Amino acid sequence: xxxxxxxxxxxxxxxxxxxxxxxxxxxxxxxxxxxxxxxxxxxxxxxxxxxxxxxxxxxxxxxxxxxxxxxxxxxxxxxxxxxxxxxxxxxxxxxxxxxxxxxxxxxxxxxxxxxxxxxxxxxxxxxxxxxxxxxxxxxxxxxxxxxxxxxxxxxxxxxxxxxxxxxxxxxxxxxxxxxxxxxxxxxxxxxxxxxxxxxxxxxxxxxxxxxxxxxxxxxxxxxxxxxxxxxxxxxxxxx
Length: 239
Fold this sequence. Notes:
Largest sheet: 5 strands, antiparallel
Number of helices: 5
Strand content: 5-15%
Shape: elongated
CATH architecture of the domain at 1-29 and 74-161 and 171-197: Up-down Bundle
InterPro entries: Claudin (IPR006187), Claudin16 (IPR003927), Claudin_CS (IPR017974), PMP22/EMP/MP20/Claudin (IPR004031)
Helix content: 55-70%
Strand order of the largest sheet: 4-3-2-1-5
Membrane topology: Multi-pass membrane protein
Organism: Brachypodius melanocephalos
Main location: other
Distance between the termini: 61 Å
Order of helices and strands: HEEEEHHEHH
Number of strands: 5
CATH class of the domain at 1-29 and 74-161 and 171-197: Mainly Alpha
Keywords: Cell junction, Cell membrane, Ion transport, Magnesium, Membrane, Tight junction, Transmembrane, Transmembrane helix, Transport
Structural class: alpha+beta
Radius of gyration: 32 Å
């Protein structure tokens, strides 16, 4: 029981930080950052929703939002948005389900098997959240790296070149955390479910054996005359 509680709390901590990292990553503005910042007087960051420029000397930041969501955007940007929003929703729901499934939370206190199933569902949701999260963040980072490498290979200089920033790293970390917490909850909760089922069947067998023994003892204490009368009644009934 102590190990079960420990695994639940560890999974809850990882799920909390993973969901937070994914949400912060989705709604921050540093998926791409200028790689040649030593030659610039400002730091330029691009996110999934807007682009910000920060002056190096006075720290003043100016942000420009992209056009409407229905406007023409690159496939990389649109798919990354969709995958990260999906990861945010799944990880958030997985964390909420996990909180309800914790043994310390007074929700369905008399239904331990149902709470274990809630934890199992939470683990599956966290695993599913990690798939679009890691796919979107890694694909975005690889695309930025390939684009920059191709420009350098062909000696093309467009005035500014980008590398992937801390928002992209945060998305990767949140996705890996979802995989870790989901694996803990699904695998470990499955083992504990098997143990609980074994205990349930053992208790049922003991109750069944006790009931059979009680019946035998009761019949043994019946008087001989009562037993004979029962037999005669049975014969008459068949006739």
